[in-house]
Amino acid sequence: MSVVGNAKNAGKTTVLNALIAAYGDIRVGVTSIGLDGEELDAVTYLPKPRIYLQKGTLTATAEDCLKTAEATYRLLRRTGVSTALGEIVVVEIVKPGICLVGGPATVAAMEKIVGILKDLGAARIFIDGAFARSSHAVAGEALVYVVGAHYSPVMEKVVAAAGNALRRFRLPAVPVALQELSGQTEIGWIDRANGFHPLGMASTIGTADRILDQIPAAAAWLYLPKALGPVFARRFIERREENRCGLVLADPTALVLPDDVLRHLFQTGRDIRVLRPMTVAFVAINPFSPAGHRFDGERFLTSIRKVTDLPVIDVLEVINHGNPQ
């Protein structure tokens, strides 16, 4: 399970600590897409909750991170995955305590690390993510989305952005007839009989109008094997009367768009499907911001529940009531 936040200091680490504690009766594995568990945030320098690992927990972390560990551990395996902080190693926590967790930076490396944790007996694996890098969520079977007040002092803005983000994470799978597109590396359009027509390009960077010029009015779908960025999205939106086809993407994280562009894309009403859909387990809210503002907890909870049918809980509820299965 991946833990994804809507902003830095959203409350991800608090949720992660609660999840680790909730599964104290089984072997848990923990890693991170980047550096996490540090005392101060590396960008904002605000105090952060630190990752507390229980006895028996497996953690995959960069070797240099272990120099500051307050937990006692024993080395189980070297992974061969390199980072700026040294090789990722897997250790077992012998005596519980705080540990800095710095994991791999790519999805492929994360998938390797997850596989190693499984091989070593982890029955539940939690991946902590870096802000604005939700790509690691693809390596998990499900994710928790943490919506923190730190995103904006205006609650309505936080709620609206969360609704669009959850819609993005829950994009539906392609029809069965289109699943074979997973082997395609070129951009192309799909006709009404599910025939694929490659356009000889692999990326949308600098090619938006060239791509859109070649899509016939009768096209059912446009397939983009890589990321859909804001420049292409804006042109797609601007030319929506010419191009009424749906979009097929690799997975929800391929939508790399700021909130306003994502909202406008959804407002076009285009059918957007993915080859690898994701599962959101629940939403955790954090009405407190380390910047000083806070929302009314009940009002925040009610507002988020209006934009999703997923279970929504307060971060502190996770801690106080335990086991959010």
Give an overview of the whole structure:
By secondary structure, the protein is of the alpha/beta class. The chain has eight helices and 18 strands. It has two domains: 211 residues, 3-Layer(aba) Sandwich (Rossmann fold), CATH 3.40.50; 102 residues. It has a nine-stranded mixed sheet with strand order 6-7-5-2-10-1-11-17-18, with helices on both faces. Strands 13-12-14-15-16 form a five-stranded mixed sheet, with no helix packed on it. Helix 3 packs across helix 6.
Write the CATH fold name of the largest domain. Rossmann fold
Number of helices: 8
Supply Rg: 21 Å
The termini sit apart by 11 Å
Mean pLDDT: 89
Count of structural domains: 2
- Tell me the strand order in the biggest sheet: 6-7-5-2-10-1-11-17-18
> In CATH, what is the class of the largest domain?
Alpha Beta
* Uncertain ranges: 37-48
Secondary-structure-based class equals alpha/beta
CATH architecture of the largest domain: 3-Layer(aba) Sandwich
SSE string, helices as H and strands as E? EHEEEEEEEEHEEHEEHEHEHEEHEH
